[in-house]
Amino acid sequence: MELDSLYQEVILDHYKHPAHKGLNPIFSAQVHHVNTSCGDEITLNIELVGQRINSITWDGQGCSISQASVSMMSDLLIGKRLEEADVIVKSFSELMASKGTSAGDPEILEDAVAFAGVSKFPGRVKCALLGWMAFKDAAIQAQTNE
Amino acid sequence: MSFSVPEIRKDFPIFSRSVSDGKKLVYLDSGATSQKPASVIEAESDFYRFHNAAAHRGAHQLAQEATDLYENARAEVASFIGAPGGPDEVIFTKNATESLNLLAYAMGNAQPGNRFALSAGDRIVVTEMEHHANLVPWQELTRRTGAQLAWFGLTDEGRLDLSDINSVITTNTKVVALTHQSNVLGTINPLAAIVARAHEVGAVVILDACQSVPHMPVAAADLDVDFLVFSGHKALGPTGVGVLWGRKELLEELPPFLFGGSMIKTVTMTSATWADVPAKFEAGVPNMAQAVGLAAALKYLTNLGMDSVHSHEVALTGYLLNKLNAIETIKIVGPTTAQSRGGSISFIVEDIHPHDLGQFLDSQGVAVRTGHHCAWPLARRLGIPASTRASIYIYNDENDCDVLVDSIVQGQKYFGRF
Fold first, then answer.
1. Of B114, B192, B349, B395, which is the most exposed, with the fewest CB atoms less than 10 Å away?
2. Cβ contact B372–A65 (<8 Å)
3. What is this structure's pTM?
4. Can you give the residue ranges of the Aminotransferase class V domain (chain B) (predicted)?
């Protein structure tokens, strides 16, 4: 069933057991993003040590796709340097824009290739990108704050 | 005409297609926009095919035909909503949102001495269940004028809390703007006490009738409101046409909002005077084909009989509410019985986010709306980030409700598998 390509097991697993949820009081920047069409919201804290991402924590409410995506993203980006994170974010954004034509690069995206199916559902791409756009915004603000 | 859903469905070309790989279309999103009968599609296309010209302009036959069709559409609307002052009280807009903005901007143009002039110390009253279209324009008007925004709160069941009308509608209230039927809760608001208090203090009552005019008999004069708005596309009509009805004497005092061709009486290089209503509020060449399409839609509803439309919806709403109430893991948002409520039924399914549920229902051919339904403050008041909404209309039947509920149960199994 087409729906199964959207709701991969690993996605529903992250939805039920989200990683890095709960805001760390120590952060370099905090952002709040909303998906105005559906009301999904996320607050995301990023803590930089030099150019390295020491922590990402978040809180929010939303559908399984938006929540699992930010959970998996946090796992993927914590400990990375900002320039490495840029490559990952770009790769994920390209995957989301692929309209189902790309399977994603597992070398770069690891488990997040599970979101490849989302790109076949244009209405859900925004859900998957909510946390990633929040991260991009937070990373820029954190560097400005330095 | 007797009311037969199978017969009605034959009039709607869209029901001859399937969705989601061959599944029957179960369209439960008429609260967002209704489907269109062939007679509406044909009326709109026939205008372009045979009569197209700019209404109220041109010295030729086509211009006269376009003018006649457009003005006949206005008369059809006036008759449908029981406008006491006839067609002159009906203004065509782009949609209900534009109708409400027209009122808010026009009031903002009122100078001291005009009854619509607002200043600090005046009050505009809304309710906590308003669609953004009947909230944000008033927020902005109060910001521009210094007037104060106040609102009726809600009971936990999703009805207006009218326990203290006099302290909400104070003597300095100039405008009371509220929905006739909530697009989320389905609640039909009782108007008599609110209208009486508003008129007692000299305020005008503006009714957002988007969710009522398509679904039940609505007579502007009987409701005793002062302005009423609705969208054509939720009432079987095309997109791009909405209605603002107002009492003639009020429309005459209200300043215009959009300026330009058609709305003037005289123009010099430095000034202009305004045409009589309704032309004063219709600047530019209007959406003629859409107005003609709306007239065909209202004729279709009139042929069915609005009493029959309403009875059908009350029965079907009760049927669906009963089925949903029977499932412990489903919580209805809003009144749980068909008493004083319409067929917009929002609900929450335990452990499944509405967006995910909507996606699953779509895979079963069931079209619903998910999210905050353009009433974000209401969602906050109810303490829910989002809900799923099924909204019914003339072409829905018990089978559609059965498919919805069966699909919800399947969705629970689908998302419960891990």
1. B192
2. no
3. 0.94
4. 26-404
